[in-house]
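Researcher: Sequence recovery benchmark, item below. Answer with residues only.
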């Protein structure tokens, strides 16, 4: 019971922090380029992880390294870069809500690309319901939405899905969570470095002296990047992937509430309908997973 409680608390802390990252990034975009935020965030996260555990994974073989490299490319660089760019066009709440369909996309790629798992009718119904909700948010709005930003956020979910599949494979290697995260962060930074150095004409250090910028960068680097990888994997270990994943679906609601309170973004009736439909669709899909899991392991 105590382990379950710890797992639930770890999951709650994780989703609260992750839901707030959209807000912090939106604030930082007033002074930094998307690639600057991304590079500083994960560089800081890597430094923190190295302080906690200075010993890096030794090289094993190129096959394993390819999985680490692809995870860094998809999950650290491409996913977050597209997400950051999307925030320059559209609302933080939109990016958070659209990003919540990542579990759907992951399941679809797993089934049709890797030929693993099954697609159940309730899952399909949930997916359709969620897509309709996203359409309410992205396609029926007026001045509060942007097709480019919302489209980039949607496209980013495919990179996160690919990242999830690579991490699933990496989990079979038997390495510690911190060591794996360090390796993935390193590759992510390597891939984003050319874009970072190409994009910046000069690096104004004075921006870091602004307390608001400094605090948000620390939050993204230490909290959202370094800490959350640890707390989320701890939660999965204690609760199991299916039970822990339910918490991810609260991120859109938390992001929307935070963006309304902190950024003053408007919460329209159409947005509310979209939120309800999206979350209901995700619930249907997750409920099917829970039912199947209980059939396999009734205890």
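Model:
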């Amino acid at each position: 019971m105590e382990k379950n409680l710890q797992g639930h608390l770890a999951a709650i802390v994780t989703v609260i922090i992750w839901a707030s990252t959209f807000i912090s990034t939106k604030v930082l975009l007033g002074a930094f380029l998307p690639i600057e935020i991304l590079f500083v965030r994960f560089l800081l996260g890597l430094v923190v992880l190295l302080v906690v555990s200075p010993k890096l994974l030794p090289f094993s073989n190129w096959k394993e390294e390819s999985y680490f490299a692809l995870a860094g490319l998809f999950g650290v660089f491409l996913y977050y870069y597209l997400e950051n760019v999307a925030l320059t066009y559209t609302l933080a709440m939109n990016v958070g809500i659209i990003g919540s369909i990542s579990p759907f996309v992951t399941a679809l790629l797993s089934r049709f690309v890797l030929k693993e798992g099954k697609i159940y009718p309730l899952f399909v119904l949930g997916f359709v319901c969620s897509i309709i909700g996203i359409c309410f948010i992205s396609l029926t709005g007026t001045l509060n939405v942007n097709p480019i930003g919302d489209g980039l956020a949607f496209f980013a979910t495919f990179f996160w899905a690919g990242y999830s599949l690579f991490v699933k494979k990496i989990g079979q290697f038997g390495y510690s969570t911190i060591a794996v995260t360090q390796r993935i962060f390193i590759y992510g930074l390597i891939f984003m470095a050319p874009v970072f150095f190409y994009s910046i004409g000069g690096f104004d250090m004075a921006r870091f002296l602004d307390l608001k910028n400094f605090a948000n960068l620390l939050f993204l680097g230490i909290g959202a990047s370094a800490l959350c990888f640890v707390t989320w994997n701890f939660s999965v270990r204690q609760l199991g992937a299916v039970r822990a994943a339910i918490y991810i679906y609260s991120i859109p609601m938390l992001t929307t509430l935070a963006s309304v309170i902190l950024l003053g973004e408007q919460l329209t009736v159409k947005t509310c309908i979209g939120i309800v439909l999206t979350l209901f669709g995700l619930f249907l899909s997750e409920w099917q997973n829970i039912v199947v899991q209980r059939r396999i392991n009734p205890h």
